[in-house]
Amino acid sequence: MVPRPFRLVGRRQDTTDTFTVLLEPTEGDPLGFVPGQFTMLSAFGVGEVPVSVSGAAHVAGPLQHTVRDVGAVTHALSRASVGDVLGVRGPYGTGWDVAHGHGKDVVFVAGGIGLAPLRPAVLEVLSHRDRYRRVVVLYGTRSPDDLLFADSLADWQGQGVELLVTVDYGPPSWAGRVGLVTTLIPRAGFDPKYTLAFVCGPEVMMRRSAMALVERGVTPDSIRVSLERNMRCGVGLCGHCQFRELFICVDGPVLSYARVAGLLGYREV
Ligand SMILES: Cc1cc2nc3c(=O)[nH]c(=O)nc-3n(C[C@H](O)[C@H](O)[C@H](O)COP(=O)(O)OP(=O)(O)OC[C@H]3O[C@@H](n4cnc5c(N)ncnc54)[C@H](O)[C@@H]3O)c2cc1C
User: Fold this and answer.
1) How many Å lie between the centroid of ligand 1 and the Cα of residue 75?
2) Which of 35, 158, 222, 267 is most exposed, with minimal Cβ within 10 Å?
3) 255 CB less than 6 Å from ligand 1?
């Protein structure tokens, strides 16, 4: 439960409200993780929040987190400068099981900041590109200004990824698609019978995307979602993240849609 001190060695402002921090332990080994896992990231004296790792798992280098500034702790994290020390516990939780997609089409559906937790999985797949058939990334944000990882997106296309991007609202200068990310699912090039899909974003977006994938013919047990719940301990003790019989910090955050489909529609579970 004791956070390890990590020094901020780099910082990038991705959009007006989203930033990326690069962290290295002040001593000891770097943090190993699998794509989809999260850490409890703390701004000392303010608090601790769960944040997914957004960097590559298979490449040595600083621990990378991409964070949207929405409240007290994320705001304190946004104000940290290079050289400052933050606390890190973890990694925790289940990961995106990309290896189950070997020999299949792999489809990533991201909404807004949801691309950050998916990015390590995309990078993992691309590091073994020959083991997968088609790789499709469907990405939706509120506006063109909210698009994350523009460099990565261009790079992925260069590596044979079919990338479809859409925004909820586009200014007249936006020549791309306008509409919800779910509208991309019927038009993307993948074979639903041989597809493993990974979905991350706001809960309503994940539910609608999973339903659209099922409608296209992907089976619920071939769809993964990453659930977000209020968390404190991260290790299955405090119960803050309880979702009926599940503790999202240890049973999740990545879960099969087949397991949670019946729970997602209910309020207050
Ligand atoms: C497993 C897991 C992984 C996560 N990964 C990431 C990640 O990679 N990047 C990231 O930016 N966030 C991620 N989050 C969400 C992050 O933990 C919350 O944004 C954070 O806890 C908010 O804390 P705060 O003290 O800054 O805001 P609070 O003061 O707790 O909340 C401020 C206000 O913002 C609202 N709010 C809280 N969270 C969100 C949210 N996610 N979106 C919109 N409004 C919100 C609250 O309802 C409240 O009204 C993840 C959460 C979980 C459970």
Assistant:
1) 11
2) 267
3) no
Question: The domain at 98-226 falls in which architecture?
Answer: 3-Layer(aba) Sandwich (3.40)
Determine if ligand 1 sits within 6 Å of the CB of residue 195.
no
Torsion angle (degrees, nearest 10) of CA 113, 117, 122, 127: 140
| 116 Cβ below 6 A of ligand 1 | yes
Query: What is the CATH topology of the domain spanning 4-92?
Result: Elongation Factor Tu (Ef-tu); domain 3 (2.40.30)
Q: What is the pLDDT of residues 17-44, one digit of tens each?
A: 999 999 999 999 999 999 999 999 999 9
Q: Is the CB of 202 under 6 A from ligand 1?
A: no
Q: Relative to the CA of 228, which ligand 1 atom is closest?
A: 53
Q: What is the pTM of this model?
A: 0.95
Whole-angstrom Cα Rg for the chain:
18
Which residues on adjacent β-strands are paired with residue 107?
136, 197
For the Cβ of 49 lying below 6 angstroms from any atom of ligand 1, the answer is yes
Cα-to-centroid distance, 33 and ligand 1 (Å): 21
pLDDT mean across residues, the chain: 95
Q: In the structure, what pLDDT confidence band is assigned to residue 94 with cuts at 50, 70 and 90?
A: very high
Those residues with Cβ within 8 angstroms of residue 88's Cβ, 6 or more apart along the chain or in another chain: 3, 4, 5, 6, 23, 25, 31, 39, 40, 41, 42, 63
